[in-house]
Write a structure and sequence with these properties.
single chain; alpha/beta; Rossmann fold; 8 helices
Length: 245
């Protein structure tokens, strides 16, 4: 096994999948968390193991504290400790505020914000014992500036940003760094609902005139988790092509 152990939530596809691949190929023992996509998680595990990487999969809803605790415990039991937690699991939904139901709100907050609390709460207990660790939360540029027709999504992602900053202040003296990445428009399955015309209009609003890729986010995670970022904590770093400055 390698010397560093990482848990990535929501890692069977999209940004989470690329984060898992990047970390595994750069010397991390990786736990790939998923909720519903077992075939994709198994395919990723097989692909990485075929390349000599060390990884495993774990099914669990991070919005459920018991399942989040089981995820972190699984990493500790398998690899001995947890050095890096990447809170990536998330859902999105486009709806007028007046159409958002209490269930819509609960589901959004449960996955996108409560899930971050659950996993972090469980991981920090182990990191405090070791006096070291890194937590990287995946938020969104809409958590920074808000998005029309995505009020519940924006609120949850803004909560992640606030949690990042506060926790970084609390855990710094214990050798634990907490940072946040706020992606812009990233080319994932979440963009399938847009027409070519809508995508073109969105691209025109981006100064770099390009959509981000999962690799852009994964490379930033790898940097923030490394010793090269040893003096960086409590930061919200955007990868949005200049759409939010």
């Amino acid at each position: 096994m390698n010397s560093k152990n990482a848990v990535i939530t929501g890692a069977s596809r999209g940004i989470g999948k690329k984060i898992a691949e990047t970390l595994a190929k750069n010397g991390y023992n990786v736990i790939i968390n998923y909720k519903n996509s077992r075939p994709r998680a198994e395919a990723l595990k097989n692909e990485l193991e075929a390349q000599g990487c060390v990884c495993d999969i774990f099914e669990g809803d991070v919005g459920n504290y018991i399942e989040a605790m089981a995820l972190i415990d699984f990493c500790i039991e398998k690899f001995g400790s947890i050095d890096l937690l990447v809170n990536n699991a998330g859902i999105s939904e486009i709806k007028l505020f007046t159409d958002i139901t209490p269930d819509d709100w609960h589901n959004m907050i449960s996955t996108n914000l409560t899930g971050v609390f659950n996993c972090t709460s469980c991981a920090v207990k182990e990191m405090l014992k070791n006096k070291s660790g890194s937590i990287i939360n995946i938020s969104s540029m809409w958590g920074q500036v808000g998005a029309s027709c995505e009020v519940h999504y924006s609120a949850a992602k803004a909560g992640v940003i606030g949690m990042t900053k506060a926790l970084a202040k609390e855990l710094g003296l214990s050798g634990i760094r907490v940072n946040c990445i706020a992606p812009g428009v990233i080319e994932t399955d979440m963009m399938k609902g847009f027409t070519p015309e809508e995508l073109s209009a969105i691209r025109e609003e981006i100064p770099l005139n390009r959509f981000g890729t999962p690799e852009d986010v994964a490379d930033l995670v790898l940097f923030l988790a490394s010793d090269k970022a040893r003096n960086i904590t409590g930061q919200v770093i955007g990868t949005n092509g200049g759409m939010v400055i």
